[in-house]
Amino acid sequence: MKKMVWIYNNSSRILEAIIHLFPEEEAQLCMISSEAVLMERITNEGGDALVLDAFRRPKDDADQLEFIRRLREISKLPIIIVSEPVREEIKIRALEAGGDDYVTTDRSPLELVARIKAQVARYNALMTSECNERRYCVKELVINDKARKVTVAGREVGLTPIEYKILRMLAGNRGRILSAEEIYSEIWQEPPIGAANTIPVHIRHIREKIEENPKKPQLLKAVWGIGYKIG
After folding, report:
1. Which of 129, 151, 179 is the last residue of a domain?
2. I want to staple 207 with a disulfide (CB 3.0 to 4.6 A). Which of 10, 126, 169, 214 is the partner?
3. In this predicted model, which residue has the larger pLDDT, 103 or 128?
4. Which H, E and C letters describe 110-123, residue by residue?
5. How many domains does the chain have?
6. Residue 80 maps to which CATH number?
7. What is the pTM for the complete model shown?
8. What is the pLDDT confidence band of residue 66, given thresholds at 50, 70 and 90?
9. Does residue 100 contact residue 119 with C-beta atoms inside 8 Å?
């Protein structure tokens, strides 16, 4: 599955230096220049890593460190900080604030890419280790199949038995697009007569319970003309 890497503040032109080193099918690099927008998108969309281009002006050091702390409060995703060569004290304070790695611009773009990939691999291994075969994790959504419990960002969600089965089926097939007919046949164990009308209603009800904004779903998505998927 394609990874999402956020690039915040591109003043060092680091995006241009590394974008060609990520095959299109391997990772999507998205540049954001607004702190508020970055916080919102990470909260709503998750991601796999953040490259934070920071510490350009010494007078802004305290603000940058506070920004890293706030990012760490809302997300576990790896934070790789990039800056011009700075005092060792700044690197240490940035890592203590919540950064996972620190790379200076005198290093090669290949090294930065290698560090990003290493952090993404560790993060995905961590996320996988937190789940087992009876537990499905998709961003802030957690399905504990043993307890038949669903939570979103720690908040328990009440689903009907049919809604639960549909959500679990989609989560268990993460990355796949399932048609309404496939879902209907699996859940009801009968020919999918009326699936095109029945399944969308259940999907809408599930979204109303698990999505922050059901009209702009980030967890349970429709692929026009094909079906539905998780993530």
Report:
1. 129
2. 214
3. 103
4. HHHHHHHHHHHHHH
5. 2
6. 3.40.50.2300
7. 0.57
8. very high
9. yes
